[in-house]
Amino acid sequence: MKYLIRHLGIWAVAIALCAILPVIFSSDYAISLLSQMGIAIIFSLSYNMILGQGGMLSFGHAVYFGIGGFLAMHGINLIAGGTLPIPLELAPLIGGLGGLIVGILFGWLSTERSGTTFALISLGIGELIAASALLLPGFFGGEEGVSTDRMVENTITPFDFGQQIEVYYLIACWMLLCIVLMYLQTKTPLGRVANAVRDNPERAAFIGYNTRMVRTIQFALASFFSGIAGGLFAINYEIITAEMIGAIPSANVLMMTYIGGIGHFFGPIIGAVLVTFMQLTLSGFTHAWQLYFGLLFVSMILWAPTGLAGIIMNHEPAWKAGLMKKLIPSYTRATLAALVMFLGIMTLIEINYHLSLSIHPKDPMSLFGISFKAQSPAGWIIAIALIAVGFFFFKRGKNEVKNSWMDVHQAIKTGGK
Amino acid sequence: MVEYLIFSVLNTLVLGMLLFMLSSGLTLIFSMMGVLNFAHASFYMLGAYFGYQITTVAGFWSALIISPLLVGILGAAVERYGLRTVHKYGHVAELLFTLGLFFIIEEGVNLIWGRNAMPNFIPASLDFPLFTLFNSEFSAFRAFMLLISVAIFIGLYLVLTRTRIGLIIQAALTHPEGVNALGHNVPAVFMMVFGGGSALAGLAGVIGGIFLITEPSMALTLGPIVFVVIVVGGMGSLTGAFVASLLLAGLQTFAVGLEYSLVDLLGIIGVTVNADGILRDIWRIQLSHIGPILPYLFMVLMLMFRPKGLLGKREN
Questions:
Q1: What is the DSSP string of A151-171?
Q2: What ipTM was reported for this prediction?
Q3: Which chain B residues have a beta carbon less than 8 Å from that of A127?
Q4: Do B103 and A137 touch (CB under 8 A)?
Q5: Which of A101, A229, A276, B31 has CA 20 to 30 A from A172's CA?
Q6: B300: which chain A residues are within 8 Å (Cβ-Cβ)?
Q7: Assessment of whether the complete model's pTM goes beyond 0.90
Q8: Which residues of B touch A125 (CB under 8 A)?
Q9: Is B154 within the bounds of a domain?
Q10: Which structural domains are found in chain A, ordered by start?
């Protein structure tokens, strides 16, 4: 029983969470946000299959997402026309299979070497497919993309997918299924050998594994799940354009996965949820959200290369020893200082955006309910003062955190007393 | 036809030399430090914007000198305080750092100069036709661009082959540990090469911003092409970068003028195809439309079959 709870409890919680969340956050906006998060989770987990598991840095993962999306879109149109006798709920599978086939082809072509060569080939393939999308209007729909109507006759559930909540539940089911499959894949011999090939390809080859074959299979499986995400995208939005296979979505999924943390299975899930949330909410508040996003990404690389999941897992020993209370005071101080510094940076950025991008730069702007003129020096002085004060205390806070960590390590060594 | 050929060759030279100015720095940085610098094209963009801003204050000729210097200093600072910090986390982190920098610089440019293209025009002192050939004019600015880039090429060649620091750089390209062991300060050389490469990108930006366009997406349009150049030319090979720049510029310049589709080409060798059916999109593609794809196709094929590039000496 204990075994069951330990191993299946987390999945039960996940299922319950997926079922309850749309009931708690029942606005249209929240449900569409949740749907997008579901798609992003599959997409970034599939990306981590090649980056985290296989050690291949790809700059063209959106190709498989996009091709899956386009195929599913054409598939839904065929289902609506009655020529394709499968229910709508299985349409993402069309995308997945398409991703798989393209993934086998491009995977075989690009995985002879890993490292920079692979990264460059993936970049080249990504640009190649994105550039040729406009040449093949029959498949990619040219500038306006391909659209469809998801309310078709042929479904196995009683849903007709007229409402977003029905689409959400479809996405949630596919998401849970994909997460389970991808998690189990990490436990298979293939998943383990992929790790070996990532860490030491020469040795793996000496033992007798064909490293290129391992990479190709791993890559193709990732493309499969990526294609499923694309298929869900097609159902969710009912339109897909050639932009979805370009460099921007590819870079996006890379950042998502990296911010979440590539070293742990659940990292990309955190990253996908956080980044999707940021993208959708921040873009409503400010023009500068991409800048904040870029700053977050670079600070993660500079100071927390293990990602959010890595940060969380670092605390496991301290948590188990019951020593979190030793860390919290210094954390609070460092976080407060960082917030003050960030507030200053944000004020500067917003003032500048107001000056360069708003229609009437002379009008007063408002930030946190305070209204002031962007031209007045007061805003600048306050912002720079905030940054300076925040930076000073952040430096001190960082040392405090370091010291309290040393205390914790010492305490764990001596038996938690 | 002769007119078309001559002007295509001239335009190839102008565009190719611009590409070379960008790729020479990148290929040195890549082969020395192993970092695929995504922000290189961003430095090109910064050069263009700095150039535009300085031109409005102090004129074009000051901009031509000050802007690359600023970009070079910025590049050296990025290497010293950014890349050197992430170096311990490995190449992936370094690469992602430059990718993040790319985003930040693009948004920073949006932040300061706005999203629209800048009115960055040819300076009055160079705004006249140099010569007229078969009714077409060749502007003095293009000739000036060609002059600068040739001067840079010769200068770079002389520095790398005839000076002490050039020899150290050449040695550090292939054997950084060995050079370090001989007592040279390799991190300082790295910083200098990064700064110098960025300055060259900045210089290319000052003139390229006028020649092409000065807008926030200019880094994204040119960035991948520069990667193609260093891959095709061969990592770390300046001559390779030179050849590949001209090759790619030629590919793009000539492809634009050719209005043939696959059906026409097959027709020449006596094959007729039915230009309908499921493959009709493919049959109707014209050569001039393939122009944007060719560089990437070239790069992918090159990486698969000859990963060290045309004139490169090693694979990674």
A1: --S--SSS--S-SHHHHHHHH
A2: 0.83
A3: 224, 296
A4: no
A5: A101
A6: 109, 121, 124-125, 128
A7: no
A8: 296, 300
A9: yes
A10: 2-303 (1.10.3470), 315-413 (no CATH)
